[in-house]
TrEMBL record, chains A, B, C, D:
Similarity section: Belongs to the chorismate synthase family.
Complexes and interactors: Homotetramer.
Name listed for the protein in its UniProt record: Chorismate synthase
Record: residues binding NADP(+): 48, 54
EC number, as in UniProt: 4.2.3.5
Domain of life, per lineage: Bacteria
Pathway membership, UniProt: Metabolic intermediate biosynthesis; chorismate biosynthesis; chorismate from D-erythrose 4-phosphate and phosphoenolpyruvate: step 7/7
Length: 367, 367, 367, 367
């Protein structure tokens, strides 16, 4: 497995730099027979797009997906699906000044140490621009999961800075620019973000994702556990510093008698586990939560170093998000969907004939 | 990559069930020339061992490691190193009663759903007994990391239930049965655990791990990030529900101006990032934190289901830990060491000649 | 994928040196529900065993397989199956004399160059002893293939030195010590081998393998082609120098009009392709052929070098086969079976639902 | 590893159909610091190009490579290198007639059986058009191998039909359209090919490849052997039916006393092994040989089946090569180069420090 590839049976390989000619991906292992059209990618790319509102980076990319292969007469053929997006709104001049500086909190210094060379334009490969292709690949996974298994993957913002939702209404999430589950707080968030932008600072965020209708049995022990692969997938997103499954760090102070989810003839009585036991899905909703750090690209100047080891003042004048977590919601969804589809195929490979030999217990304990 | 294997260039494959004849592992990709003897495994296996104190499971396993291959005249040869531990203290009768029951909070139900069959003795493959081999493999990684790079990996318990350390003294960690960094609290912890055991209940815990002297440049973007692979490695340990790097979920409420670690000619001024930027090590101490759920094997009875879908009362009478997080400390260390050694080899493969072509900046900003 | 592992979804990892304490393997990814007992391995291990007749090496190994994991109450559970064979007939003293010599035609020099160290006892890891575990793993694959798909894998010797079979009778193959398809030549072969052994020399051989009842559709383009993976599997066997599929090198002088296998309503009219087109099985018998070099371990002395670069006379006094190709027949079968089972699982993963959506053409063109 | 990817540390993923909008590849794992420009690809793509002479297919593709990523200011950065070639000379109408027919000897039937759907335009994904990207990726590998290790990879045609070279002059190979090592036979070959084309038939061929200056020690036992990976790489090329290393199938009739290559203080006295022992390079020239079948796309009509199982006459009117082996020479070179570079990186990963600890024997036995 190369390090720019993700997934074992549904393998996504991404390429491209923030300000290079294009970004793209190859989705390999997708089953044949799925209807895919360029316009299918629009909705989620729009949700992730920078420039969507004044609260995110003002870079404007059309993000038009070209399908280069793997689809014939609108349907997948089982061969690798290559997707390409041309970069159109590059402003490499914005970055000329910092080409030999190490921006604090960015990958500038580590890429330099690792490779001895780096593309400084907009962070090059380490830019969150790469996540565009995760979202595009995720569209295919979401479609397959929904069509074949009725699985739905939905994320929302569950915290910005100190602010948490007062209530929870899933239908609200897609109706405000913050993926926020309580519309009553939208004005508060707008004021908060405006003040933040004015101050030149940024703030962290938390994203929650739930997948429903996941059948029991997906996930491979021991080193291919569903939760292990979710953790890898989500932690690999830019700016992520923490991942939780189910009750997450809340379990540290829990008693076993409170944590263990009781099984009843009507289904599970609770879901502290977050839909995974022993690395395998239980059939309950799969719940995970992700911590995004505040971006380090600030208008507030700071002393740093340059490639010669000299002190250099760094100020970000490019276009950046004061809260990168906001538009990370569809990225998290995409990664969850890609992990689930990959595991679904792996399950089919190893246990495809289990259903024929062994009766399962009556009823899906998904409650 | 099979699902019982871990690591790309240093690949560990484990096998074995809790109450089968033996557990073992194959460590493939280890460089030649490392001195390894059976007694090297004793210290860490002892640290992990059940039955070490009255606060952990009373299962007594000698855990004698036999080296079956890969070592000639005491030195690794570059061929796969197979390690074997015979299971000696199996009490399969303890489990006969629950063979057709689904213990809540365990993998019984999910293994049954996935495979249509399962080894019920002590949880079979899903038992934490498997982690013995992770610790054994980790010994090799720790040795190589220390010999070649001076890297030290050290973990400790940073929370049990609601109890957190009052002070922090690294030298205390190995001098008490709780891997606790403040000796003054040991009596408090003993009383707490005794009460817990008496009540038949269990509790969660948090383990912290730090690796020092990690050189800058280890870790592979984008899907082989050092933090992504640490997350996968740690989340794959039994009972883990959350993983953090650096400030972890603390970043959600942070401002960017506070989070970004300043670079100075004397080194980094802080380490909120936890030693990783863009998925690549910075040279600073690598910091991570792991949440362990309370074990669901309780003496407190609970209604559950059996394989026929009928209600069945489950009581655990076997030997179990009231806090599985305690002896998870060396397991977490082992996984961190295995990830680091794998990444070190991967870095050498791709960038082995960087040093020859490109001068790095003066000084290692590891401070 | 580590280099001592083979297969993507059915992954076999082998370990062990010729004269170490044991050899073994881990078979990961095997579906649950297959009946496996230690005695199942006996037949094929016996077929491969050295010491079977006076025409092969006189090393006598009991080759008793111990199943360490993955099987519960006689049935596979879906967890990794570890198999162990203790080495009992080691005579390491035989090799003391050549510990610092490079035997010509052996891996002594290359292992030394690669690793800077090697286990000289019987060739260590490079010994054909390793293939014992391939045969053992192959038993599981053969069983699954036969049970689920009716696939049969059968090999035979098709050439020793200049001698080729006069006739072909598949039922003869298992009734003589040469896996020879014409019993009338057995005496000729015995005399030939006796003379060869007396002369202290050795000779090459060719093994053919056919798999019948392979369904159409197995094999993954482009870099996971069925023929590509067969080539890798067979070329990885000790002493193999050539691999052919179907007509093999015979195609070089063929015309296209003669080579292309016509499709008729009654099935294919010929099988020059050997059952594979575009890397995917056609449903016809899968045919391959393998060239084994003559062993270089001869009683005839030869000047070579030692590890100090000095000239040293090498004479093999240990136990060796005058024709290693003879007992390679079951090894080739095992590798073909492992490749087929792996591809079967991969096909099920990606195309498991093809049957439901798209009608296939009537009849299997397997003729 | 996905099935459209090749290589463990230098991983090449190709995509694209013969008559889709574009073909391309992603080369992941390439070390930083290598100078790469679009014009570097021209020479080898030209050598592979169809339409080069009247003896190959008359499809005319400009095959202009666009570098989409991984190169900054003309130098590789260590991030994935994406290469794109637009298809410009598609004539899909040529294929409309055979869209529901199975051409004998082609992958039409097997793709249909596997996927239940296929792109019939020019063979879609199964077309040799895909090998264009192998050649492009191979250019990068050839460059790195030459720059860092002085390795040269050179192929030639060693047989067309019954015709073999009378003499051998390496410098002749690039000076005739047949990659033929004896210029005196060029007229004979031209007449032979003209007659063949006129007859509407095709013929097979054999390609030899040699790599010189390969250092000893490259290649990973047991399942990552250098010869095993070469076999997989070469057998994965369209139309290949056989692969040989060193003396290949010639070893079947050899005696061990003749085959084993003697080691002397002046180097190896012969090279029957083809530069590989135990799966690891010896330092001698690496020799391999590949059999290409005659293409099945003939102007000679033949009865076949259509997707409804009915008999249908197939005649190829599109543009095809009467001998696909001719322009396969640079493809074989590319695959050998990719395998070697991958193994070089793997060797560096595991044994990078061998040189520091263990002295090798004096002199490189590469003679």
């Amino acid at each position: 497995m190369s390090s720019n590839s993700f997934g074992k049976l549904l393998t996504v390989t991404t390429f491209g730099e923030s300000h290079g000619p294009a970004i793209g991906c190859v989705v390999d292992g997708c089953p044949p027979g799925i209807a895919i059209a360029p316009e299918d990618f629009r909705h989620d790319l729009e949700r992730r797009a920078t420039g969507r509102t004044r609260h995110t980076s003002q870079r404007h990319e059309a993000d038009e997906v070209e399908i280069l292969s793997g689809v014939y007469e609108g349907v997948t053929t089982g061969t690798p699906i290559a997707l390409l997006i041309r970069n159109t709104d590059q402003r490499s001049k914005d970055y000329a000044k910092i080409a030999d500086q190490f921006r604090p909190g960015h990958a500038d210094y580590t890429y330099w140490q690792k490779y001895g060379i780096r593309d400084p334009r907009g962070g090059g490969r380490s830019s969150a621009r790469e996540t565009t292709m995760r979202v595009a690949a995720g569209v295919i996974a979401k479609k397959w999961l929904a069509d074949r298994h009725g699985v739905q993957v939905q994320g929302w913002l569950s915290q910005i800075g100190e602010i948490v939702p007062h209530g929870f209404d899933l239908s609200a999430v897609e109706n405000n620019p913050f993926f926020w589950p309580d519309t009553r707080q939208v004005t508060e968030l707008e004021l908060y973000m405006d003040a933040l932008r004015k101050s030149g600072d940024s703030v962290g965020a938390r994203v929650d994702v739930v997948a429903t209708n996941v059948p029991p049995g997906w996930g491979e022990p021991i080193y291919g556990k569903l939760d292990g692969e979710l953790a890898a997938a989500l932690m690999s997103i830019n700016a992520v510093k923490g991942v939780e499954i189910g009750d997450g760090f809340g379990v540290v102070a829990q008693k076993g008698s409170a944590h263990r989810d009781q099984m009843t003839p009507q289904g599970f009585a609770s879901n502290h586990a977050g839909g995974i036991l022993g690395g395998i899905s239980t059939g309950q909703p799969l719940r995970c939560s992700v911590a995004f750090k505040p971006t380090s690209s600030l208008r507030l100047p700071i002393d740093s170093l340059d490639t010669h080891g000299n002190v250099a003042e760094v100020v970000t004048t490019g276009r950046h998000d004061p809260c990168v977590g906001i538009r990370a919601t569809p990225i998290c969804e995409a990664m969850v969907a890609l992990v689930l589809m990959d595991q679904a195929l792996r399950h089919r490979a190893q246990c495809g004939d289990v259903g024929e030999v062994t009766p399962r217990i009556p009823g899906n304990l998904g409650g």
